[in-house]
Amino acid sequence: MQDAYSKGLTGTDEFRAFTAMIDEYGSDTVAAYDRNIEKIKRYFTEDATGLSNFIKDAVDKGFGSKTDDGYTLAMPDMDEAAHSLGITTELLDILLGRVEDYGAYVDLVNT
Asked: Whole-prediction pTM value?
């Protein structure tokens, strides 16, 4: 999307759908893209750095804790967690799936 943005192709269906997906309020405007893209870049990296950033932010917001083995995430209310992190529930679900891709077990239990 960055390429489309750089070329000014911000009115395409693809750009607008992506922007609506990353904005917690569902806005598909250029302002919404600008407001959210840095967090997307922070969480979605080519290596595990983005997931480390996500986990740290989740723990800092009270949705988990550091353990001897790493981290435990606790998100009984996905909407609340997503809102607190400033992302959509769809992105939260994707990030939790990526955490599992790296071999972690994700259990969304009540705390």
From this structure: 0.83
